Amino acid sequence: MVQIKEFRVPMPVSLEEYQIAQMYMVMRMQQQSTTSTEGVEVLENRPLDDDPVFGKCQYTSKIYRLQSKAPTWLTTFAPADSLILTEEAWNAYPRCKTVIKCPYFTKFSLTVETVHKADNGLSENVHGLSKEQLASREVEFLDIASAPADYWSYVIGNNNTDFSKFKSTRTSRGPLLDGWQDRCNPVMTAYKLVTIDAPYWGFGYRLEQALLAGERALFLESHRNCFSWIDEWFGMTMQQIRQLELKTDSALNRRAANPTWLTTTEECNRVLSLDNEETQAVPA
User: Fold this and answer.
1) Contact 24/231 with Cβ under 8 angstroms?
2) DSSP string across 82-127
3) Of 61, 80, 125, 189, which residue is most buried, by most CB within 10 angstroms?
4) Domain that holds residue 169
5) Cα–Cα dist 94/79, whole Å
């Protein structure tokens, strides 16, 4: 059964700032999660000028190896490599689309369509869904100031920032107290529409629910990181972030091919260091 769920993630940043924040967050999280046996391999990362759907956009193709994150119940009837996933993404910010497939489960599909808007998450149909789709869509608001405690948040998350006490040095934003979404300026929201289908008798629904929970945890963790790292990415230009992206892609692929490359957190962070003259952020 196809399931549709829309996650809405308000953020205390502007639309323009979020584009940089998101790219920085993706790079740093990929560095942290990639080892010689698991993580991300970047196959393609190139601009497109005439995509039939998005027109001008940035296209990426990646492989995710997530064997150790498979829940125990899945490993009882599927091999460890069942959580090797392929991802294609089209970034035409403020619209983006990601398609994830699994070579082991050939009928499985997961699509994330994202619209970013300068609001606090109360727009009702930013994806232009039909009446039938709206009737089956479930909406959930994610608060980055919350402290998740579910299984997938434990597996995916390691950001322990207390946003009720956090305050950005460079922007003076924060702390995030109850109801901050209605008082914050600037504010924007990532509307993430997840459509998932695993048409397998006996375990398909359970697989869909597990992956929806995984996506929820990933959205929450990544957006918590976006804000807690604001003093690192704030002020960077698109040219600087693209240069850093190319550098990071190269480092990820070198690590996948060579187990001794980037074996410590400090070495990973050095790749993303903002002390490099070529990628030094502009002072606030």
Assistant:
1) no
2) GGEEEEEEEEETTEEEEEEE-SSSTT-EEEEEEEEESSSS--S-TT
3) 189
4) 3-35+105-117+131-184+194-267
5) 38
pTM of whole model > 0.70? Answer: yes
Q: What is the pLDDT of residues 86-110, one digit of tens each?
A: 999 999 999 999 999 988 889 999 9
pLDDT tens digits, residue range 118-152?
999 999 999 999 999 999 999 999 999 997 777 77
CA atoms within 13 A on the CB side of 106: 0
Record the tokens describing residue 147, joined without a space.
């402290």
Match 């490099």 to its residue by tokens: 276
DSSP-derived letter for residue 81 is G
Structural domain total, the chain: 1
Instruction: Provide the CATH number for the domain around residue 12.
Output: 3.30.530.20
